[in-house]
Write a structure and sequence with these properties.
The complex is a heterodimer of chains A (604) and B (285).
Chain A (H helix, E strand, L loop, with lengths): L1 H12 L7 H4 L14 E8 L6 E2 L7 E4 L4 E8 L7 E6 L17 E4 L4 E6 L8 E5 L7 E4 L1 E4 L4 E3 L3 H13 L12 E4 L5 E4 L2 E4 L5 E4 L12 E6 L3 E2 L7 E6 L4 E6 L9 E6 L5 E6 L4 E6 L5 E6 L4 E6 L6 E5 L4 E5 L7 E6 L10 E2 L5 E6 L4 E6 L4 E6 L5 E6 L5 E6 L9 E6 L4 E7 L31 E6 L4 E6 L4 E7 L4 E8 L5 E7 L4 E6 L4 E7 L8 E3 L5 E7 L4 H8 L9 H8 L3 H4 L2
Parallel strand pairs in A: 1-4, 3-8, 9-13
Antiparallel strand pairs in A: 1-2, 4-6, 5-7, 5-10, 7-8, 10-11, 12-15, 13-14, 16-18, 16-44, 17-43, 18-19, 20-21, 21-22, 22-23, 24-25, 25-26, 26-27, 28-29, 29-30, 30-31, 32-33, 33-34, 34-35, 36-37, 37-38, 39-40, 40-41, 41-42
Chain B lengths: L1 E4 L5 E4 L4 E3 L5 E3 L12 E7 L3 E9 L10 E2 L13 H4 L12 E6 L6 E6 L16 E7 L4 E6 L2 E6 L3 E10 L2 E8 L4 E7 L2 E5 L3 E9 L4 E5 L4 E2 L6 E2 L1 E4 L4 E7 L7 E7 L2 H5 L3 E7 L2
Parallel strand pairs in B: 1-6, 5-10, 13-17, 16-24
Antiparallel strand pairs in B: 1-2, 3-4, 6-8, 7-9, 9-10, 11-12, 13-14, 14-15, 17-22, 18-21, 18-23, 19-20, 23-24
The chains are: A mainly beta (604), B mainly beta (285).
The complex binds copper (II) ion.
Chain lengths: 604, 285
């Protein structure tokens, strides 16, 4: 961890380095020019897991400056567009926040006046983190600050539970050696003894350390079919960019294979979908511009099509198997033909500066709902006319959405809440095209003391599917590392279950003999959590890494994001596949899966 | 010259010593005109048509054994001064390694007058050069006759270079201007870093050198002032600047518009929104 040695060095070196160029012009009255900022540090944005903001000096995601120094943040080694946005900063800092409205490749040079912690992110890829610590050499310890302001408008004391949580998350997210590796007996987040100055008190960084046992457990009851998980950070020999899709057999809970993109770099494969025959897997490359189509069984790549900047999610419309790809760094969803070689038919505009992310199509094929990450809105698109109704919701970075089987209601996860709510789901009336209410996912959490007084404890929600029976909304919460389960009858959190650092992807699959599992994947851990939806309990934890595969060079099984369990559980989708059953159109393997389903699972 | 690493991790060129010898054999040391630190853009080297230069480059990049070079535009040179690696020139590595400087020979032949870029063509893999990290600078070749044409007081005139007191170099890279002033009154080069405010007195003749580097295309626009594009009689206040495209022009500060804080910026909206702009401060006489 060079980051840590740098922190130490910064404390020791305080007051020794620095340049006086900026002051030079004033000394000579013949010179009338006034120099601009000279960056004392640079953060180069990259596609590299953990090092999304990379200091070229030592390859870390953190730089230490002195007050009045400047840093340049620029997009260097990345195949897509981003925003440079302040996630948090010391309250009252001059010229803050930095917030690029729109994804682009533009750089920022920024001076920092106030000592404290400044965290930057990208609003399109909101786990890309980089930090600047502005340290006053005259105070003891490295300055974190007194009061931190969050991009949502909330101000929290730097000693609060949520501030410490964000600090620890920053260290874990940007340091791959601190990711939770389930192939080892325990998870050891050991941070060194670096003095931090928090609200004037000196606290050691090592106070944020922790150790937990890593226990894997195969669920006692098998599932039906298979689960695909985007292991988005896995590095493969010979490839410059990260990411694979891991295929798990739910019969024995073992890794079957990994799709590595054959000759293509997948560049952060984020989310998948399939056709009604379960023959093709459609795969988005989130840090790129491509949709990849490959054969589910053989892994052969059929096509690679450029669709737009940062395609995030892909889903089909059940009635005609057409594909809809959300262009996360754009303002549209691209409608495409399905099959081995999808081709774009139409671009459905979701509104200015929308950046749609994890969208949803109702099972009756009538509507598409998009969470518009940069617009604080949700769009309902009538798919018969492709007309868009944008509903402002007040949510900050609405990132994923899913709906009830009857197509009446959608739940949108707001990554950064709906001010003043720190963490929320917005409930949308789909045909009525209006917001109904917000559900507070963190109602039982005190952000200052960290006290948890009930089940509602979910911070920074991401994927949020609705169970195929319409009873529950399961939400992966990335900051609290919890899964919250909302009862749709009451719109209240009824259960909070433990998840992993960077808890992110969630979806439902079939349980053998009836009922459903929820599968949850996490970015900074290499296990898949299996939740029994009949008991609302964790049924098991399955390893996503393949320790026998020598071509995996780093981050084995890490980066869990999109999840695609097959057969698809949603009855509106499943019925299209069932129609093909017994007609020689499906593979024997798929026929076998369908035969294993109970009438309820089939939606009969 | 040397190539070095800045505290920020960016790379930059620095002039170590610069001596000039005139026709009579008299030498003069002009090192004091340069910044004593590495700068982005690198030192501006001025020559006149007919001059020859020998430029020795040292690799002084902390923590790196990679070769670094100078590939120059505009002037004439032999193959061994191309500043490329053997993989490109099929002859030899024309680059400096740590402890092994490399010398380039340039001739500012007649007809080469103008503003030219120089940049690294060797550092990093695949030896394409680290210009993106800051290894670039300016070569200004003045015409033998000592005069350049410019639109002054509404007329195209031949301006005597001796009457130009300030020259502003503005490199357009990504969404940032990196500036340098050649101040002939103080006889020194002043690094202006990012998106600076440049300043002159009203009615002074000043020369601008605007150059692009990197991959982006820019549109340089200066408010309140217009100039003729070299070799033409076209009057413009905006020019397109692509990678390694350059534009040099002379204006009279505040001509017809008076003093003020005149804006300059990239007219690509997204670049401008990212702060790719500065001021041209014209002070009342
Ligand atoms: Cu991004």
């Amino acid at each position: 961890m060079t980051k840590i040695s740098k922190l130490t060095a910064a404390i020791l070196m305080a007051g020794f380095s620095g340049s006086s160029w900026a002051a030079q012009s004033g000394v000579d009255d013949l010179i009338l020019s006034v120099p601009g900022l000279m960056p004392s540090a640079v953060l180069e944005m990259s596609d590299e897991p953990g090092l999304w903001f990379k200091d070229p000096v030592d390859g870390d995601a953190l730089v230490v400056l002195k007050p009045k120094q400047a840093a340049m943040i620029k997009m260097t080694d990345t195949n897509t567009e981003h925003t440079i946005t302040s996630l948090l900063w010391p309250a009252g800092a001059e010229n803050f926040p930095v917030d690029q409205e729109k994804p682009s490749s533009a750089s920022v040079t920024q001076a920092f006046d106030k000592p404290g912690l400044y965290v930057f992110t990208c609003k399109v890829h909101p786990y890309m983190f980089g930090a600047v610590v502005v340290d006053d050499p005259d105070t003891k310890g490295l300055d974190i600050g007194k009061e931190l302001q969050l991009v949502t408008g909330a101000k929290v004391p730097a000693s609060s539970d949520i501030a410490k949580r964000l600090l620890r998350t920053f260290f874990v997210a940007t340091t791959p050696s601190l990711w939770r590796d389930y192939s080892k007996p325990e998870w050891d987040v050991s941070l060194p003894d670096i003095p931090l100055n928090i609200e004037g008190n000196t606290i050691s960084l090592s106070a944020l350390s922790m150790t937990m046992p890593n226990e894997l457990k195969k669920p006692a009851t098998p599932g039906v079919g298979e689960v695909w998980v985007n292991t988005q950070f896995e590095m493969i020999e010979g490839k410059k960019k990260a990411g694979t899709a891991t295929r798990i057999n739910t019969g024995d809970w073992n890794v079957v294979s990994k799709f590595k993109g054959v000759k293509e770099d997948m560049n952060n494969p984020h989310n998948m979908w399939t056709d009604k025959r379960y023959q093709n897997i459609y795969q988005t490359a989130w840090f790129d511009k491509k949709l990849l189509t490959f054969d589910r069984v053989s892994g052969q790549t059929y096509s690679e099509v450029v669709v737009g900047e940062s395609p995030s999610h892909v889903i089909s419309r059940p009635s005609d198997d057409m594909l809809y790809v959300a262009i996360n760094a754009g303002e549209q969803v691209v409608k495409m033909t399905g099959g081995k070689n999808p081709s774009a038919q139409k671009s459905i505009n979701t509104g200015p500066h929308t950046s749609p992310h994890g969208h949803y199509i109702t099972e009756d094929s009538k509507y598409m709902v998009t969470p518009n990450a940069l617009a604080g809105s949700v769009s309902v698109v009538d798919l018969n006319t492709d007309t868009n109704t944008e509903i402002p919701t007040g949510g900050v970075i609405p990132i994923a959405v899913w709906g009830t089987p009857n197509g009446s209601t959608a739940y949108a996860a707001n990554l950064l809440g709906t001010p003043p709510l720190l963490s929320s789901l917005t409930v949308i009336d789909i045909p009525g095209k209006k917001k109904l209410k917000d559900i507070n996912l963190a109602a039982d959490y005190d952000p200052v003391t960290g006290k948890i007084s009930g089940e509602a404890y979910g911070l920074l929600p991401i994927q949020t599917p609705v169970s195929p029976d319409g009873k529950y909304v399961v939400t992966a919460n990335t900051l609290s590392a919890t899964v919250t389960i909302v009862d749709t009858a009451t719109n209240k959190v009824v259960k909070s279950l433990p998840c992993e650092p960077g808890c992110h992807g969630a979806h439902f699959g079939m349980k053998k003999g009836g009922g459903y599992y929820a599968y949850v994947a996490s970015k900074f851990a290499n296990d898949l959590i299996v939740i029994d939806m009949d008991k609302l309990e964790v049924a098991g934890r399955v390893l996503l890494s393949d320790l026998k595969d020598g071509s995996i060079t780093a981050h084995n099984g890490m980066g869990g994001q999109g999840i695609l369990p097959l057969p698809i559980v949603e009855h509106g989708y499943l019925k299209e596949t069932l129609k093909l059953s017994g007609k020689g159109e499906l593979s024997p393997e798929v026929e076998g899966w369908l035969n294993a389903l109970t009438p309820e699972q089939k939606g009969i | 010259m040397k190539a070095a690493k800045l505290d920020s991790g960016q790379l930059a060129y620095q002039m170590v010593t610069h001596k000039i010898r005139d026709a009579s054999g008299q030498t003069e040391d002009i090192t004091h005109q340069y910044s004593t630190e590495p700068t982005i853009p690198g030192p501006a080297i001025m020559m006149t048509e007919g001059d020859k230069a020998e430029v020795t480059l040292e690799q002084d990049i902390k923590g790196s054994n990679e070769p670094v070079s100078i590939h120059v535009h505009g002037v004439h040179y032999k193959m061994d001064s191309d500043g490329t690696m053997k993989v490109f020139n099929h002859t030899a590595d024309q680059a400096a390694f740590p402890g092994k400087p490399y010398t380039y020979k340039w001739t500012a032949a007649p007809g080469t007058a103008g503003t030219w870029p120089y940049h690294d063509h060797a550092f990093g893999n695949p030896m394409l050069g680290a210009e993106d990290k800051g290894l670039y600078g300016t070569l200004i070749i003045n015409p033998k006759g000592g005069k350049v044409s410019a639109m002054i007081d509404g007329q195209i005139k031949q301006v005597d270079l001796k009457d130009i007191k300030r020259e502003f170099i503005l490199w357009m890279h990504e969404t940032t201007f990196w500036g340098m002033e050649l101040n002939h009154l103080a006889n020194r080069q002043v690094p202006l870093w990012t998106n600076p405010t440049i300043g002159a007195r009203e009615d002074e003749l000043v020369r601008f050198h605007v150059i692009g580097i990197g991959t982006a295309f820019h549109t340089f626009h200066l408010h309140g002032h217009r100039w003729i594009q070299p070799g033409t009689s076209h009057l413009v206040d905006t020019v397109n600047i692509g990678p390694i495209v350059r534009e040099a022009f002379v204006i009279k500060a505040g001509e017809g518009v008076g003093p003020g804080n005149w804006h300059y910026h990239c007219h690509v909206l997204q670049h401008m929104q990212s702060g790719m702009m500065g001021g041209f401060r014209v002070i009342e006489n």
